[in-house]
Structures are given as C-alpha cells and as structure tokens.
Amino acid sequence: MSLDIRNLTVARGPRKVIDELSLPSFATGEFAVIAGPNAAGKSTLLRAIAGLLPSTGDVTLDGQALHALPRAEQAKQVGFMPQSLESRSALTVLDSLMVAMNAGGGLAGRALRGPAAGRHALEVLERFGLADLALRPMAALSGGQRQAVGLAQAMIRDPKLLLLDEPTSALDLARQFQLLSEARKLAREGRIVIAVLHDLALAAQWADRVVLLEGGGLRASGAPAEVLTPQSLSQVYGIDARVERCSEGRVMVMVDGLSQP
Amino acid sequence: MSAVETILAEQSRRTQRRVLLVALLGLGAVLSVLLDLVSGPSGLPLEQVLQALTGAGEVPKAAEVIVWQVRLPVAVMALLVGAALSLSGAEMQTVLDNPLAEPFTLGISASAALGAGVAIVLGLAIPGIPALWAVSANAFVFALLALGLLQLASALRGGGSEVVILLGIAVNFTAAALLALVQFVASPDALQQLVFWTMGSLVNARWEGIAVLALVLALCLPFSLAASWRLTALRLGADQAQGFGLDVAHLRRWTLVRVSLLAAASVSMVGVIGFVGLAGPHIARMAVGEDHRFLLPASLFTGALLMSLASVASKLLVPGILLPVGIVTSLVGLPVFFALVLRREAR
C-alpha cells in the first residue's frame, strides 16, 4: 500500500495555501512528520489529504483516487485526529466513540451493534489508556485527555491511513512520548501514519521521514538527519541552529538565535 | 466483573434509563391530551367525554359535538404543533450549533405572521386556495420563503452556521418591520384579526389542517430519526463529524429542509407560538442527554406535552375565557423553563 500525492493545490479564496505540491510516495509502515514554520501549509496539507478541505490534484491511496470515493468510504480508509477537539458536548467519551463508529454508516463488514460495539470501543480506549475516562462527559476532560480521545476516535474504524494534526500540542512529556511511540507502532502494524509536528526534536526522534514545507511548497523530504540541517533550518525558519547527534545517534536541534533581523 | 464489563453494564443501565424517560415523556404527552380533552368551559363529565370518543353508550348530541368538533381538534392540533415545533427546534439547535436556534428566533414565525398579515389585511392570497385556507397558505409560503433565503445564504457561504443565524435574525427583524407596516395600514377589523393570529391560537383548529400537519410530521420524522447518529456526531464539532465520514453540508441542508417544513406547517396552522421550539429540546436534553436517538423522540414528546398543558392552561387560567395559547406558552412556560435551567446550573 502506498499514498501518493501529486500536484495538490488548496486555495483559500484567491490565495493558494498549497501550490502544486507533489511528494515522494509514503509506504505502509512509515511514520512521517510534516514540519515547517507557521503558515507553511502543514495543517492545510493534512486536512486536504483527509478530504476535509476542497483541493485539486491527485491523492491516491492503494491505487485508488481517495477523494473520488464517497465521504463515508473515505472515512473508513482515513482517520483524522484534529489538533483540538472542540467540544462542549455532554456526550461521554464512550458515546463519542460509538458516534465515530456509527455516524458514517457503520463499520464495513462488521455488524457492531449494542454491546459488541461498546466492547470494541472500550478495546480501543484501553489501547490508548483511556478506559477510565469512558463514562466521563467530553466537556469535563482536560485538554490533553481530549486530544488523546481524538486519537481513539480517529482509530475506531481501523483506518489504513492515519493523519495526526499536532497531536502532542496539549500533552505533557510523558504523554508526548506515549502518543508518538503509539503512533509509530500503529504505522508498523501496517498503516501509513502522518503527523504534523512543530517540535523538531520530537520529529527527529520519532519520524522515519520528515517532510519540510515552506510557503505551501516542498522544501525537503527524507530521513530526519538529511532534512534537518543547519542550512535548511536557517533558510526555512530564519534561525541559527546547531544540529547534533547525541550518543545514541539521535538528532538534536538547538536554536542559538535568529539568522534574519 | 472486569473493568470493561462494569463500564458496559453502566452504559446499558444508562441506555435503559433513557429509553424509560422517553417512554415516560410519551406517556405524559398522551395523558396531557386526555387532560386537554376533559377540560373546557362546558364542564362535561369525564365519563361522557370517553363515551363520546369511543362511541360506546348513549351520549347527548351536544356532548358529541363538543368532543369531536371542539375539543378533539384543539387537543390533537396542540399535540402535533408542540411535537413538530419541538422536533424542529431540536434539529435546528444541533445543525446550527446554537442553543437559541428555533423557528421563532430565526424569523420563520415572523415571516409566517407577515404572510398571514398580507392575506388578512391586504387580501392578497395564492390563487386557487379556498378563502378558509388563504391565511394559512400565505403563512406557509412566507415561512418557506424565509427558510429558502436562509438555505441560499448557507449554500453560498459554504454552510457556515453563523451566517444562517445572523441572517435569520435579520429576517426576523425585517419581517417584523414589514408586519408593523401592514398593521399600520390595516382597518381596525383586520388589525384585530391579525393581532389575534400573531398571538397563536388553537381555536381555529380544523381536521383538514390537522391532516396536513400530521402528514408533514409523518414525512419528516423517519428521516429525522434516521439521521440521529449523524446529528449526534455534529455535537462533537463539524470538523470531527466530517472526519467520521459525514457530508456535513449535505446533512445541514436536508435537516434545514425538514425543519422548515415542520415549522412552516405548524406556524401556518396556529399562528406564532414561541418558547415550545426552544424549551422542548432543552428539557428533553436535560432528561436524556445529547444522543439524538433519544433526544429527538424526547423532544417530540416534550413539545407535545408542553403544548397540551398550555392548551389546558389556556382554558383554565381565566375561567370562562379562552386565552390565546401563544400567550400561555410564554407566560407560564418561561418561568418553569428558567427554574429548570437555573437548577441545572446550580448543580
């Protein structure tokens, strides 16, 4: 299975946020990180792949034009975890998963109704360490909990492609670690996982590949050590940065100052 | 019992409780209709009312006429109008993601009133419609026009709910201003008729009107219930719902069509009735939560219950005088509603 993105363009009014973007294929098992400065089009790219924004160009998953599929069909293949779950809802976490399962027309080939559906939802919650929150209303969750529930919602239909929009922005260090190792594990189980991350240290630590965007176009794509160099960081972010390898061979990024006034 | 089993048991206990609450609200609605049937200025004994209804035993002709041609149409109309307004309010609040949305706040009632005013005061009606139905038909068409405008706005602006709400408020004020203009030029006689209509009243309930409203409700309800998972998904945010595989713009559009038909049909039959479309869904939500599989039927029954009780109150509040039911829903209903909301906030 592979994900191919060719000539993707996303316009917001007259402005092209993503302009004719083509990326090297993503392959099953890969955990890729999209990085880049603010307004580079990271989240826009992710949302366009997920089919949440109108776009032109080709997004092909497993040889299938993804956006030509009906919405419900797309949702079975693609899981999208938003940066923050905006929710004042009194629905419980478990209810929200039942909704995520049933709203798009149910799960393909699985008659999950009543207790069986509840059991499946709880399995997913348990996997992400959220079972304790099952009966808690969504509105009563902390930001971090809500973000984690977002991942469970995205995973409930067991998608082949998982898209995470700044999944660690509300998480403490332990939970960042937990979520990213889980994301990589989900990829290794036979999915493609793509996350937008601001934190380059995390990107360097976890990603198989970093896609560096700048101004709606591709700057570089490849292994973290290839993409995250002092030169590219200086050009893209306008910073003086050192990129060093620590004893385990991991890439570390240290910012010393701004390279442009 | 493992943690999973405990949670599942609790979940099914909650589901049972919601089913029970919905059933109780339904029972309450039925009982309130019976109460509506036995209350009235003529003071018929309960026994005679029941006999007239079932056709069993000897019933005086007068009792039969009172029950079948006065009380029953009023009671059934109250039931249907309450159910339709409350259901449309519930769906509107969800698709527009606004707890204040209802036919009244979005200018649908005001537009219907304007339509009625045009018929009553200016004598302008849709050709081919019998005089008896001219006012209702006009009100229906104007209400649909208002909703068509809202739909158009939302289609042009990509289905955003803020645009719909702002435009609804604008429609409300425009219709109210135009209605004031119509009232300004009205003869005293027509003015009185129009004011009475805008107060909302059940006394003109007729079986033909009931049939129309029942038909609209019967057409819309299955689609509403079928959309209940999708509507619940909207409570988690439009973006998230889209990610779950919903076509949110499509859902919004068709829900607004259903809501429009329900609201326009109700308002055109009985005039402006505020509060029920707002309070019905809120009370239902307090009872059964946001899962629309329960919320929609609960709203339906709560609206029917509220409207039937308002109908009863309109007969009993001032002995010998039948108050317009629209006044009663607001005067009696709002304090009750406030109390419920404040009690919930206090918890």
TrEMBL record, chain A:
Native species: Alloyangia pacifica
Domain ABC transporter: 3-240
Keywords: ATP-binding, Nucleotide-binding, Translocase, Transport
Gene3D superfamilies: P-loop containing nucleotide triphosphate hydrolases
Transmembrane segments: none
Annotated function: Part of the ABC transporter complex HmuTUV involved in hemin import. Responsible for energy coupling to the transport system.
Listed name of the protein: Iron complex transport system ATP-binding protein
One GO MF term attached to the UniProt entry: ATP hydrolysis activity
InterPro entries assigned: AAA+_ATPase, ABC_transporter-like_ATP-bd, ABC_transporter-like_CS, P-loop_NTPase
Lineage: superkingdom: Bacteria
UniProt-listed SUPFAM superfamilies: P-loop containing nucleoside triphosphate hydrolases
UniProtKB/TrEMBL annotation, chain B:
Pfam family, one: FecCD
GO molecular function, one term: transmembrane transporter activity
Transmembrane segments: 19-38, 72-92, 104-126, 132-152, 164-186, 206-227, 261-282, 294-314, 321-342
Compartment(s) of residence: Cell membrane
A single GO BP: siderophore-iron import into cell
Any one GO CC term of the record: plasma membrane
Membrane topology: Multi-pass membrane protein
Keyword Glycoprotein part of the UniProt annotation: no
Keyword tags: Cell membrane, Membrane, Transmembrane, Transmembrane helix, Transport
Coiled-coil parts of chain: none
InterPro entries reported for this sequence: ABC_BtuC-like, ABC_transptr_permease_BtuC
UniProt record similarity statement: Belongs to the binding-protein-dependent transport system permease family. FecCD subfamily.
Protein's recorded name: Iron complex transport system permease protein
